[in-house]
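Exercise 7.
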Amino acid sequence: MLALGIWSFDDDLFEIGKNLEVFSSVYKEVNINYVDDINSAKLVKTGVDAMLENLDPYTEFVPESELKITNCIM
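Solution. The predicted structure, written as tokens, is:
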């Protein structure tokens, strides 16, 4: 049973890797070959937002630059 779980996990990692490779290839081609200049950061943010939009209305990406960090004493 454990071996089956590890095999499934390896398949998931392979699928994730392939999907990231596709995203990276498309991003690179658009960056290099698109007829107009593009805002790379905006392009990636749009891609991430579109990906998360398919999950639920509550899941969203908040860039680290927009996080308010407060000092906490534990």
